[in-house]
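for the writeup, i need someone to sanity check this before i put it in the appendix. the sequnce is what the collaborator sent (i think, or maybe the updated version? ugh). structure was predicted straight from it, no edits. if anything looks off just tell me and ill rerun, i have time this weekend
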Amino acid sequence: MTVRSQFFHADEGDAVAVENETGKSRVLLVCEHASKTLPARYGDLGLADDVLSSHIAWDPGALAVARLLSQKLDAALIFQRFSRLIYDCNRPPESASAMPVVSEIYDIPGNADLDEAERFLRTAALYVPFHEAVSSLVEKRKILGIESVIVTIHSFTPVYHGRVREVEIGILHDRDSRLADAMLADREAASFKVERNEPYGPDDGVTHTLRLHALPEGLLNVMIEVRNDLIADEAGQRAAADYLGESLERALASTGD
């Protein structure tokens, strides 16, 4: 019996999805927290419906913005189809937040006291195929002469642990800041409040995907965070995607890479 058949019902589909795989842009969009869907085997994890729809289960609006960027840039898009409450694909297996017992102010009963077998099962069913899919797509594009630019798309809640966040768009980077620097160069003219490494930074452990797929190969990369109240409807999603698409295009043109 395969891990997949143990983990998913027959009608639940794959853990990862790819859209516009043959897009001509160098940009490869990645959305690790695209979905709030829980695999049927986990029920509701002991959580109320409003909690399962909140930011602890997914990044609201992130996939919508990523899809608009995919259309605008003609960029390939890869995303996770299940909730980060089961496995957060932007965290390595050894991280406590990969399968969180607590998220912000919420206890996650269904994640309490996980044994090694369950942790292995979730890792094998969600984390491994997701990152294998990203690696495979990067390699396919390399063979075609496309050096991928890894751009991960996230959203964040406007209030976290009672603290109001004024930043509207965060441009995040790890030790390679080339693309982030270029995107931040004209932020003063932006219609959004744009900040570097806010509301998170690499010390918070949020750049795992960049570390795994971009840094070892020297690929240009950036992580983008958009405050989720700004992208709660189509108009807001389009405004954010328009700004980010134009910013990415200018930044890529200016890097000379």
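The two ends are 46 Å apart (CA to CA). The mean pLDDT is 94.
thx in advance!!
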